Amino acid sequence: MRRIKLRHLDTLAAFMKTGSVTEAALVLHTTQPNASKSLKQLEGFAGIKLFERSAGRLRPTPEAELLFSHAARLMDELTVFENLSLDLTAMTQGYVNIGILSAFSTALIPMAIESFNNQYPGIQVQVDLLDSDKIHSYVSRGNYDFGLVHHPEHESDLMTQTLKTSSMVCIMPPDHMLAQHRIILASDIADQPFVTYPRSVPFGAAIFRSLSDEGVRPSNTLISNQSQLIRRLVERGRGVALVDQFSVWDANELDHIVVRQFEPRIPVSVGMILPKRRPLSLAAQTFVSTLKDVLQQDPTS
Fold it and tell me: Which residues form the HTH lysR-type domain (predicted)?
């Protein structure tokens, strides 16, 4: 079956706008015989008379005018398609949707967004804070381009990648007596007001287990399951805290808390999960690359 081609619509549009086959040919940078042939082929494909010759000139029939109105809309849509393709390639348009744990919203993701947005201000970035189970579930359904969790679960419809492994760190106000130490030991915080995660979450369980193994029972403990709140409490002088280092990845920009290495080391990772059946867009790939660059920075320098 013969199909109408784009060049037929181009010729029709040029003819309808100029009223002349010769001028249409000039607009299209082709010859007058080629333009005439294209209009004749279009008429054959349409199966209806589209042009009449009068006084040596072609005149469009009402049917040609109706087809042209539809062709014009098609050409406009094609222009939108072409412009969008260029914008997506140049990354002046697009979007990135991410599901993350709240711990990454305090420092790591804002740093990545700042760097990415400076380079690609036209890309919309949406970040939703969810628990780990929801992140795995929604990413597997394709609701997000990718997700960030601490411990990626291996599932049949997900791909996983560990982006960085670090450790829990001790944070405190700059004028705190422990700020002079380069490394904070469990015994150092034995008698200090302490801000931490609850035992019911993995971080909290790991911290209390580590302290217990060292014979330390924290006093005057404030508890929250949100890294951002723990950080704010420390900034307000409510004590020292052990937190996920990724929640203070902007440590070298801070002047209201100090970050110190903690021993015994409690490892923590940032892992990425992606849907197997949905490849990353160019914008999402670039955001991941930006995130990896941020993770290469030394937050203590």
Answer: 4-61
